[in-house]
Every structure is written in C-alpha cells, then in structure tokens.
C-alpha cells in the first residue's frame, strides 16, 4: 500500500508541547519520589523473599492494560539472569476486584491499584488488602499505604509516569536480591561479589550491612533511569516527527472512511496494544470514540492458533478473519523483528490496510524491509525504556489524529 502523505503541519509546536509537558512532569515527579521509590524496592524485595506475591488490580479499560503489564514484567523478566517473580493481574473480566482479591490475597502480598480515585471496586480491593496486612500501592488518591501521585491532571500523562514507575520497581527490586543480608529475616553476609553485574550496578558489591548506602545508590539509579526515559521519549517523538504526522493523517482518513484499527504485539507490547485500543474506544480526554480491535484479547483464539498452526500466525489469521481494505493495522515490537508481528504486517499489506509500526532497537526487520507504511522508532536496546517511549508515541499519534493539522 502506498504510504499516505501528511498534510502540512499547521501546528508545528504540538509535538513539542506534548514532549515538554512529559519532560516537566517526569522531572518533578521523580525528583520528588525517587527516595520513596528506592525504599519501596527494598520493601517489595522483603515481601518477595518471604514468599509474597504482587497482585495488580484495576477496573477501567486503560487500567486493565497496566494490570496486565505489571504482571508480565515481573513474571517474564526481559533482563537475562533476573528471576521470575510471582505477579497476578486482576481485572473486571473475572468479576468484582474485591471478591477476586478476597480469594487470593495473603498477608505477605503486595497489591498495586490503578485509578482508585475513580473506581469504587479498586478502592475496596485496596482497603481489603491493607486490612489483610498487605503492602499497598496506588498512583492516585486512595487508602493505599503508599501513594505515588503523578503531578498532572492529564490521565494519559499520568499513566505514562505510572508505567515508568512500575518498570523501575521491577528493575531495581532485583538489586536487593543480590544483598540478601539486607532482607528482613535473612542472615547478614558481610560482602557480596557482584561479578559481571558490577558493570551496570556497581553498588551491588557494597557491604550488606549498609542499607543506607545501597538505598542511596538505588535512588541515584531511579533518577538516572528516569532521565534515560525522558531522553528516549525526546528522540522518539522528535526523530519520528514526520512519521507521526503522516500516520495520524492516514489514521484519520481511515476512520472517516469507516475503517477499524487492529492492534497487536507480544508481552509488554501486547499491553500497549490493549491500551491503544482502550484509548481509541474510550478516550480518556473525552474525544471522539473510534472502532478498534485488540488482537491480543481473546485467549481462546490465541491459544487455538498457536497450538494448531503456530505462534507466528496468531495475529495474521485474525486479520484474515476481521480486516477489510482501508482498515488500519498497528503492530508493536521492541525488537522490530517479532515473527508474528512481521507476518501480521505482511498480511495487512496484502489486504490493503494502512500499516503503522512502533519498534525499538534500529527498527529491525520491520524498518529494514519496509513492512509498514509508517514506522516509529525508539532507538534503544533497553526494553522498559522502549515501551515507555512507545506509550508516549502512540498517545501523541491519537492526539494528532484528532487535531486539525493531522
């Protein structure tokens, strides 16, 4: 399919304004909360060391994507050598959040709530968890023991900051597993040899009785990683400025012609597809609702296709069933080379869909082989940072699609 050409950008500062808002909010948030995030990493490690689990709860469509994202990050670590940690996502498709939590939660567990200020069910689940002795965390005003509230009234931006925060909690909780003497109930071992890990985290070799020193280094790492997230967000939005405007123009044309958006990806990228579809169907800022399908949503279809044909077909076969000429296919791949995303984009091309891809690294096969009409690259090899930048990019895409300049 021939790529669409964007109309002239009559609002050249729009992306700059979106980026400036994110940079300002991120700096203020992490400057204020870095120490608490470091302390939380230690407390989470203590809970996990005692056999606790992390349970994430949320009611809205957008919260569901965060619930699933938290669970997949902890259970399926993308950093080689890091341990899988028990995490469960609890969403409304299983019934009342509080009732589900009542059956599952134990006193050593950790419960993370999303959007509790607008969800009676989420707030009730957090209250129940706290009564059971759980460590409770929320990103909005609530009865949770720990509240990390992003300094913005924009729900989209708040969600991006929450995503970076739970990525940091996941990345840095592992530091304390390297210092078992600092975990409650564990014997102190005077010195730990960090080995190869010392290159990335030199503080792993500190003496294990000095919790304050390790916490101070974790706090510095929080600030460093938050700054890296801001820089990658900047390079993504600035480097793909023309692609985002062209993609927004193509997306608007498709919607105005009756088209449907189909989104897909694997793991954390699957949760990006969930969030994108949630934002299109139920815009958090009150803009026009549009038709969209999340091709990661139906576990029966996914498992049937993976079992009977192979995992490479789980998205392409759904496009064969659902897509029509003029629809839009949006693929997410941190590597840019995920086989089932590549196959889906090829199938979308055969069916004359507009194709948009959000990719990391150098763009992978999707960029090299020109498999999408519009390719937005987050130039990094660090998966959590790529996903954070991609969240900003697809949120920007939707805002540009609604704007007169798209």
Description:
With 406 residues, the chain is an alpha/beta fold. Helices cover 51% and strands 11% of the residues. It has 13 helices and 10 strands. The strands form 2 sheets. It has a 5-stranded parallel β-sheet with strand order 2-1-3-4-5, with helices on both faces. A 5-stranded parallel β-sheet has the order 7-6-8-9-10, with helices on both faces. Helix 8 links the parallel strand 6 and strand 7. It is globular and about 60 Å long. The N terminus is likely disordered.
Task: Please give a quick description of this structure.
With 406 residues, the chain is an alpha/beta fold. It contains 13 helices and 10 strands.
Largest sheet: 5 strands, parallel
Task: Report how far the terminal alpha carbons are from each other.
Answer: 19 Å
Q: What's the overall average pLDDT, rounded?
A: 90
The largest beta-sheet arranges its strands as: 2-1-3-4-5
State the helical fraction: 40-55%
How many helical stretches? 13
> What is the overall silhouette?
globular
Name the structural class. alpha/beta
Radius of gyration: 21 Å
Helix and strand sequence: HEHEHEHEEHHHEHEHHEHEHEH
The tally of beta strands, per DSSP, is 10
What portion of the residues fall into strands of 2 or more residues? 5-15%
Low-pLDDT windows of residues = 1-10, 185-194, 202-207
């Amino acid at each position: 399919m021939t790529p669409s050409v964007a109309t002239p950008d009559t609002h050249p500062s729009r992306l700059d304004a979106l980026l400036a808002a994110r940079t300002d909010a991120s700096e203020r948030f992490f400057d204020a909360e870095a120490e608490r995030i470091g302390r939380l990493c230690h407390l989470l490690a203590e809970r996990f060391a005692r056999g606790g689990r992390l349970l994430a709860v949320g009611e809205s469509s957008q919260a569901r994507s965060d619930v699933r994202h938290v669970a997949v990050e902890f259970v399926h670590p993308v950093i080689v050598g890091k341990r899988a940690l028990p995490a469960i996502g609890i969403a409304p498709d299983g019934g009342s959040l509080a009732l589900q939590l009542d059956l599952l939660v134990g006193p050593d567990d950790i419960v993370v709530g999303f959007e509790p200020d607008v969800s009676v069910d989420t707030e009730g689940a957090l209250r129940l968890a706290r009564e059971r002795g759980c460590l409770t965390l929320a990103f909005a005003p609530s009865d949770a023991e720990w509240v990390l509230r992003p300094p913005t009234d924009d729900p989209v931006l708040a969600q991006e900051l929450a995503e970076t925060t739970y990525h940091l909690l996941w990345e840095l909780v592992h530091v304390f597993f390297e210092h078992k003497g600092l975990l409650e109930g564990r014997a102190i071992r005077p010195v730990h040899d960090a080995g190869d890990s010392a290159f990335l985290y030199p503080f792993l070799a500190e003496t294990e009785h000095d919790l304050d020193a390790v916490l101070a280094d974790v706090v510095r790492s929080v600030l460093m990683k938050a700054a890296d997230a801001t820089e990658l967000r900047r390079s993504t939005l600035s480097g793909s400025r023309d692609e985002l405007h062209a993609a927004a123009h193509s997306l608007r044309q498709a919607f105005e012609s009756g088209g449907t958006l189909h989104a897909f990806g694997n793991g954390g990228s699957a949760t990006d597809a969930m969030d994108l579809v949630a934002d299109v169907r139920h815009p958090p800022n009150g803009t026009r609702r549009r038709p969209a399908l999340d091709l990661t949503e139906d576990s029966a279809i996914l498992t049937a296709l993976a079992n009977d044909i192979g995992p490479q077909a789980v998205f392409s076969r759904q496009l064969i069933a659902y897509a029509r000429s003029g629809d839009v296919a949006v693929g997410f791949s941190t590597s840019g080379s995920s086989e089932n995303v590549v196959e889906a984009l090829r199938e979308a091309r055969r069916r004359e869909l507009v194709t948009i891809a959000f990719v990391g690294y150098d763009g992978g096969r999707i960029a090299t082989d020109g498999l999408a009409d519009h390719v937005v690259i987050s130039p990094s090899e660090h998966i959590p940072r790529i996903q954070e930048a991609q969240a900003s990019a697809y949120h920007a895409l939707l805002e540009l699609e609604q704007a007169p300049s798209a």
